[in-house]
Amino acid sequence: MTPFECDFLELDARLGKGPPLPVYVVCGEEPFLRDRAVGGIVRSLSSGDDSGYSRVAFDGGDEPAPSMSAIVADVLTPSLFGGPKIAVVKRADSVLDDGGDALEEYVESQAGGAHIVLEAGKFDRRRKAAKAVKSAGGIVNCRKLYDQPPPWSTAERWDNDVARWTAKEAQAAGLSMTRQMVQRLIDRVGPGLRSLFEELEKLSIYLRASAGSPVEVTESAMDAVVGEYNEYGVFKLADSVVRGDFAEALRISSALFSQGVSRPGEAGMVQDEGAIAVILTDRIFARVREILEAKSVLDAGLGVDGLVEKLKKNRVFAPQLASEAGRHEVPRLAGSLRALVAADFALKTGQGRPRTVFETLLAEIMRPDD
Q1: 228's torsion region: left (phi>0), alpha (psi -120 to 50) or beta?
Q2: What does pTM read for this prediction?
Q3: pLDDT tens column, 156-171
Q4: Which residues have a Cβ under 8 Å from the Cβ of 272 and sit 6 or more positions away?
Q5: I want to staple 174 with a disulfide (CB 3.0 to 4.6 A). Which of 14, 160, 210, 316 is the partner?
């Protein structure tokens, strides 16, 4: 691959053409696109390699910040397994500003298959590091995408960067969206790319879409899934799962991931995505287990009195629990508990993005019976 500089929207076409480059700089105003670009580059470097890469991570925002010399030394040191390394450096603005000499030596001398991927908000083209990257590496510009046509343009409102990006992401998610539906989504969610991407994920899960068989996004689907929901709590989420209201469960969980959740007896809100997903999974597990226990009591012929005596339920609320349990079957409840345990394990062992793991869990345990 020859050295290049391109826009984020052109990156996929650049990757995979010829041998990989020793260094990549991902820069620009849009953090979500920077994250996506770094991930795309790392996946491209790792694919098809029999020996396997070892990945090392650095953060230029640490105190003290890592030096370019230390990063180069690390990435050129063979891993314990003998394979090459990929170094990913987040918030690398100051690392690039001060590390021109070390980066220049690296690109001139390295031949061991190592790669450095640097992510930065700004990249000063006047610095020595820029010269080194331009001579042997790739630069990806993640500029801000505009949600309106240029002021001098006579194009329609939907003819803008954000709409085109959203339409492309929708297609990749297995969704078929008209220009009007794309613009309606942007109007509801706003032009933030991360928020738009998350809403497309929700729509894809709700419609059970796949890339090979696109599903049309209708007004009813948009109304069911996308919107502003600010007054839901963990218990209401669990209730919606028990009721089988998938759209409601997705709406509530979206609000909880955005706003955070509270732990009983603790001050403040939990904002970490992984911790939120674990809390929500635990609450749904407790609610499904409650329904399964109630089902067992009712199937034994003990009625509402049995719920009060065996499960210590309040007599005021026991009839409602009996009604809920009556709508479920034991095999389905048991299967849901197994799925919840598996998701809890995946969340606690870092197997995938927490929000995606949780929303996939909802789709699995709330799938309609065939």
Answers
A1: beta
A2: 0.59
A3: 766 788 999 999 999 9
A4: none
A5: 210
Q: Are 250 and 257 in contact (CB under 8 A)?
A: no
Q: How far apart are CA 179 and CA 164, in angstroms?
A: 9
d(CA 204, CA 197): 11
Question: What tens digit of pLDDT does each residue of 317-326 get?
Answer: 678 788 888 8
How many of the other CB atoms lie within 10 Å of CB of 147?
A: 19
Are the C-beta atoms of residues 21 and 137 closer than 8 Å to each other? yes
- Any residues with CB less than 8 A from the CB of 282 and at least 6 apart, and which? 344
| Domains by residue range for the chain, with CATH | 4-141 (3.40.50.300), 161-225 (1.10.8.60), 234-365 (1.20.272.10)
At residue 282, what is the residue type?
D
- Beta strand pairing call for 54-59 and 85-90: parallel
